[in-house]
Amino acid sequence: MASVPTSHNEVSQEFSVNKLIRVGYYELEKTIGKGNFAVVKMATHVVTKSKVAIKIIDKTKLNEENLAKIFREVHIMKRLRHPHIIRLYQVMETEKMIYLVTEYAPGGEIFDHLVRNGRMAEPEARRIFRQIVLAVRYLHQQRVVHRDLKAENLLLDADNNIKLADFGFSNEYTPGVPLSTWCGSPPYAAPEIFEGKHYDGPRADVWSLGVVLYVLVCGALPFDGPTMQLLRSVVISGKFRIPFFMSAVLTINHVLGSLASLKTMNYRRYSI
Known about the structure:
Low-confidence stretches: 1-15, 262-267
Protein name: non-specific serine/threonine protein kinase
GO biological process, one term: intracellular signal transduction
Strand order of the largest sheet: 1-2-3-4-6-5
Catalytic activity: L-threonyl-[protein] + ATP = O-phospho-L-threonyl-[protein] + ADP + H(+); L-seryl-[protein] + ATP = O-phospho-L-seryl-[protein] + ADP + H(+)
GO molecular function, one term: ATP binding
Enzyme class: transferase
CATH architecture of the largest domain: Orthogonal Bundle
Number of strands: 11
């Protein structure tokens, strides 16, 4: 990762993200996302006027483990080229900060889209889900697992097409070699992760895809609970409600039942 000198032309007032007005050739605008160690801002290239998103990471707040995760995220994103995956355009680094310049998705998160508009009509859900599956299949072909598939990490571009984002929990894997790190959002996590078992990375992603499909067509989570213990129990049971409005055309009961199959010792789950 190449270092970028701190100067008025390159990075203004680095000590305060809120006071930053320019990073490299990009003028910063509104904040579009926040995390524990990072802020994401929309920005405009001063020459081309193209819009991007810049993830601004404060290295001084990161321990060695979290810093290694950032570098792993960058390494993986640099490898990826797919129409339904957010592109990483540029990485800038100073003594205290890291700036990830990525593709901007003006449609925002699928989660917010569902909050505003309610559950998707089945034809639209089918179109969107197909794009998500294509993106995840590409990841697995590249020997990468996402490990945090959820509505908040699925963005929409200007044409309402999917852009898979946030590779903070992603990792490279070797087929047949199980993973062990707990990752992702609990309502989307596979039962074997809740059980503390070593798990097959791609299969865990496929479970999360099943949850995403349910969220798209139902506007709610299939597995939920007021406490982590209750959520764990619900997920491990594998039981979820099929709403009355589901059509036979989508056959969601069959699809979800296969995506989220739970035959403990020898379960079968769709691959992609």
